Amino acid sequence: MLSTGALRAHLLAARLAGPVATSREVSLRSYRLFAARDPRVTLGLDPGRGWGELDLLRLMADKCGVSADPAHVSGPDVIDPERTLAGLDAFAARLADAARRRAPVLFGTGHPHRLLGFYAALADALSSVGCVVLTPAQGRCIDITTRFGVRTYNLDYVRGVALVREPGVRLPGGGTGAHSHSPLPVRVVLEAAAVGRGPLPELVVGDHGWVCGAGQLGIEAIGLADTDDPALFVGEAEGRVSAVVPVDDAVRSAYYLPLTRYVLNRAALSQ
After folding, report:
1. I need a surface site. Which of 116, 148, 233, 253 has the fewest CB within 10 A?
2. In whole angstroms, what is the distance from residue 59 CA to residue 232 CA?
3. In what order do the strands lie in the sheet with 161-165?
């Protein structure tokens, strides 16, 4: 079993925590946009209170360990590895609860190039203990607003994990999906599940709009988030997201393998 100390060392060495690749400038810009209710960063969450920039900075300092000093405006941002470890423990506890209840679960990611393997291993583990890993709306077209205008994407599943692809991009079993912040895919999936009278997820696991979109609709959601993703931490603070792991969400996919082992062990799902 991977020890807490070994994982802490890995988090720092791989820059999953400590000084991360996400810049302070990018994080502060996200806080400004969230305070202005810009949908590009609210990710489907409708905050229940007014969050100003300083409110968000204090929240992110508490949840992630970023500097609370508004005069600190440049350089790499920072994630406290102790907060990452605490987040992983809370994340694992929710997975363990879903496993005990044999709950239907939905996995979805806006970071398929980096995080697909992490989520897929969790999906495999939950499926092995009797949880239904849901895959509604396979192949459905979704129009998503991007900085280049409205573009059509196709919903796909790889090893039980939902993602979106640009039309015509399809490698069987491949994780060549598109980076996406949109909550529209999870809304489409949930609507398809409801219309099809199949089970609805009792837990959604993922990132970006998958977590915030589900949490906003009252479905338990847990996920990973970087320092420039304040929406997930606001959702957690307001009680609509159950657990958020502060971590750099765009390092090499292999660097998440120790996190996978740690979570599976903590959730008693190791095979």
Report:
1. 148
2. 11
3. 141-146, 149-158, 161-165, 105-108, 203-207, 221-225, 243-246
Please write the tens of the pLDDT for every residue from 52-66. 999 999 999 999 999
User: What type of residue sits at position 134?
Assistant: L
Cβ atoms within 10 Å, residue 34: 25
Task: Report which residue type is found at 228.
Answer: D
Are 60 and 27 in contact, with CB atoms under 8 Å apart?
yes
pLDDT tens-place string over residues 81-135 = 999 999 999 999 999 999 999 999 999 999 999 999 999 999 999 999 999 999 9
Measured distance CA(116)–CA(138) in Å, rounded:
17
Pairing of strands 243-246, 221-225: parallel
Q: Which residues, in sequence order, are bridge partners of residue 146?
A: 149
Please give the structure tokens belonging to residue 23.
């810049």
CA distance 9 to 229: 24
The pLDDT of residue 170 is 57
C-alpha pair distances (Å), 45 with each of 17, 31, 60, 120, 149: 25, 14, 17, 25, 21
Q: Which residue has the tokens 């806080």?
A: 31
